[in-house]
Structure formats: structure tokens, C-alpha cells
Amino acid sequence: MNALRVTGGRVLRPDGRVTESDVTIDRDAGTIVAVGEETVGESDETEANGEAAETLDASGSLVIPGLVNAHTHVSMTLLRGYADDKPLDPWLREDIWPVEAELTPDDIEAGAELGVLELIRSGTTAFADMYFAMDRVADVVDRAGLRARLGHGVVTVGKDEADAREDVEEGLAVARDLDGAADGRIRTAFMPHSLTTVDEVLLREGVAEAREAGVPIHLHANETIDEVDPIVEERGERPIDYAADADALGPDNFFAHGVHLDGGEIDRLAQTGTAIVHCPASNMKLASGMAPVQRLRDAGVTVALGTDGAASNNDLDLFDEMRDAAMLGKLAADDASAVPAEAVVEMATAAGAAALGLPGGRIEPGAAADLAIVDLDVPHLTPVHDPVSHLAYAARGSDVRHTVCDGTVLMRDRDVLTLDADEIQARAADAAHDLVARAERD
Ligand SMILES: CSC[C@H]1O[C@@H](n2cnc3c(O)ncnc32)[C@H](O)[C@@H]1O
Ligand SMILES: [Zn+2]
């Protein structure tokens, strides 16, 4: 076996226990073959065959499943800090969409490279992305070595019939053509932007074709009151009921935000197995509201975590998101025991992988070898009474030492091996300045 051994660390197991165990990985298969004494198949399958095993030192560290960012727009790193301190609708219409109208595929690639660099450095191994020029984003994911569920963001408002149809067709073509790329690490989804920015007829047609093609559906839903109220007024039904009428609910599908949900909508999400991706930082920054995370979890809804784009967060660090989710979840429930540390760690790992329908999220024999190794031997993580508490409340993305995806070491000792970090940072900064200059010239 072509082995990778993660040695000397403490390992976060799927049941929440933390054990002192080495992890053995089959690099060719991209899977975990042993955690301590626990192995998959015959024990000699865990022996390195011929080649010397590669090792990653995890002493003083916690080995956790690679984190899953279940809703983002990685190329929006180019717009980090460009427009802050506004609510969603004016932020999009006055600031973000005018600049996005100037984006070129090269810009999108430069922003995606910067975004995935940030993901790898902070221990994220899988993400869902909705944006434009997704062939270029897919190329970046392939080179970086991550997993992703990708989709072209479909918007039909403000477009004539032909352009609107063309956008839906592009959304479906991306979903069909990119599925399985990067040796299967890339999967796709049909991604209408939201229930208010896509025309009803086209939404229904697109969803029907996506179902026919067997691809999941991902959209922004119930994010702000300003988005929910017009649906209720015009249709006489709640957004999740509208989504159900359009056949957009189901166990493969995952909706971003879910801030303003009533009890009936929560039940409907639970009954249909539709997942919600909670984006606490974006919801706080745009003052969109507090998602009912504890109620969703109590109802049995899969709740994953996302950063949303770097323009509304303003980073892609899921450790921040875990802390924000725990804090905001308590405030929303008016209960300090709501959304505890174990819950947010599960949301950022196993629940994220389940929502996206991607491998990973668990460290056990047979699972995908997607890992982050977090250095606990630092002042702000001392003492270690409870490593899970530290993950949720005290650790930062910069505490990640090594990142592994699909059995490949993407970052060793904070050195990203699959990407040229300096070149990417310089290219993205230039692309961002040129982009904004073009937009402000118009
Ligand atoms: C059509 S591609 C995706 C589209 O979504 C925009 N966007 C970024 N953040 C949010 C958010 O919180 N809610 C809704 N839409 C958002 C992004 O700028 C792209 O235009
Ligand atoms: Zn978003």
C-alpha cells in the first residue's frame, strides 16, 4: 500500500470521543485504512508496501475531519472589503452586482485561486460554490486538490426571455458537463440564485430538468424579511412551500441561509430531508437575522455551515463560523445550552459532507482521507480541558498545520504544496484593483 501516516496526534472520532491514535491512509485509494487499532479489511492492508510511507507529524495536535464550507462564492475574495455595512438588497444592487458585471473569466479564476488557498490554509477540504465561469473554478479545484460541489448561479430578473433561458441552459449544462471532473472530486448542482431572482416558469423548468439529470438543487432561501414578504404577498404561501410546489425540496438538495422560517417550513424541510446551510457571519454582517438553528436541529433538519462569499463575511475561515454559529444560536434560542460546541463541530464536518453529498466529514476506517491537523500547542489553546470546546470557541484557521484531501497532502507545516501562494496573492490583488477601476470608470 502507498501509505500516508498521521502520527502522534489525538483524533476526533465520529462519536465525539478524542483518542490518541495514529491514522493510516491509502494514498492511492484516498481512504483511511486504520485509526489506531481499528482497521478496514485484513490488517496487512495497513502495511506500507515497497515504498516508504509518507508521514505527517501530529504531535501536540488534534486530527479532525477536513472542514466543509457548504455555501460560498470563492471568487468573491476579489471583493473582500469592497463594500461593507449595508443590508443585502442595496449591497447587491448598488455595490456588488455592478462590479460583477465587469468580471472576466480570468478574474474569476484569480479570485477562486485566492479563495481555495484560504480554504486549504484554514483546514477546509470541501466546499459548495455558486458563481459564474465555473469551468475556470473547476480547473482551480482540480489543481488545488480539494473537493467541491459547483454550479452556475442562474439569475433571470432584469433579463429578456432569450437571455433568461440561456442562463438556465448554462446552469444545466454546467451541472451536466462538470459532474465527475477532477477524478470525481468535483460534483455539481443546479443553482438558481434565489426564489425571487429567477422567474417561476424557468425555475420550474430548470428544476424539472435538473431532477431528470439527477443533480441536486442549491439556492439562497429565506435569507431576509425583504425577500420573504413579497413571496408571501404575491403568492399567498411561504417560500419553502413555493419551493416545494416547484419540486425543489428533497434529500439531495441544500438551501443557503434559512434565516426567516416558520414552524411549518421547518417541518417541511425535515420531512423532505432538505438541508439548510447556516451562514452566521454573513447573516450578522448584513443584519439579515438569526437563523433558528437549534429548532432546525431539534426538528431533524441537516444543518451545515457556510461562510458565504468573502465580501459579506469577510473571510473563508470555518473556525470563525463555528464560533459565530454557537454564539448566535444561543442568542436566537435565548438559551446558553443551545447549539453547543459538539453541534457546531458536527455542522462543519459530517453534516456539511452529508448536505453536499460528498465523501468526508468522519475519521474512521473506510472513510475518505480528508483531514485537518490543528496545532493545540499554542497559548490561546492552553490548557486543553476539552479539545472540542477549543475547536468551537478558541481555535483559528491559522492553527491548522497540515491539510489532507483524498489522501493527498495539500498543506504540510503551513506550506501549501499544490498552489503557489505568493503568485496567487499578487495576481488576485492586481485583478481586484483592475476590476474595481473598470467598474468605477463606467
Ligand atoms: C448568481 S451567482 C451568485 C450571486 O450571489 C450573490 N451573493 C453573494 N452573497 C449573497 C447573499 O448573501 N445572498 C444573495 N446573493 C448573494 C453574488 O454576489 C452573486 O451575484
Ligand atoms: Zn451566497
Automatic annotation (TrEMBL):
Q: List each copy of the Amidohydrolase-related domain by range.
A: 62-409
Binding residues annotated for substrate, in chain numbering:
100, 193, 223, 308
* Gene3D superfamilies, alphabetized: Metal-dependent hydrolases, Urease, subunit C, domain 1
Keyword match Zinc: yes
Print the keywords alphabetically.
Answer: Hydrolase, Metal-binding, Zinc
Query: Which Pfam family, any one of them, does this sequence belong to?
Result: Amidohydro_1
Q: Which GO terms describe its molecular function?
A: 5'-methylthioadenosine deaminase activity; metal ion binding; S-adenosylhomocysteine deaminase activity
Chain sites annotated for binding Zn(2+): 71, 73, 220, 308
Q: Which SUPFAM superfamilies match?
A: Composite domain of metallo-dependent hydrolases, Metallo-dependent hydrolases
Give me the reactions it catalyses: S-adenosyl-L-homocysteine + H2O + H(+) = S-inosyl-L-homocysteine + NH4(+); S-methyl-5'-thioadenosine + H2O + H(+) = S-methyl-5'-thioinosine + NH4(+)
What InterPro entries does this protein's entry cite?
Amidohydro-rel (IPR006680), Deaminase_MtaD/DadD (IPR023512), Metal-dep_hydrolase_composite (IPR011059), Metal_Hydrolase (IPR032466), MTA/SAH_deaminase (IPR050287)
Give the note describing cofactor binding and stoichiometry: Binds 1 zinc ion per subunit.
- Which cofactors, by name? Zn(2+)
Q: Its domain of life? A: Archaea
Q: Which CDD domains match?
A: ATZ_TRZ_like
- UniProt EC number: 3.5.4.28, 3.5.4.31
Q: What does this protein do?
A: Catalyzes the deamination of 5-methylthioadenosine and S-adenosyl-L-homocysteine into 5-methylthioinosine and S-inosyl-L-homocysteine, respectively. Is also able to deaminate adenosine.
Family to which the UniProt record says this protein belongs: Belongs to the metallo-dependent hydrolases superfamily. MTA/SAH deaminase family.
The protein here is known as 5-methylthioadenosine/S-adenosylhomocysteine deaminase
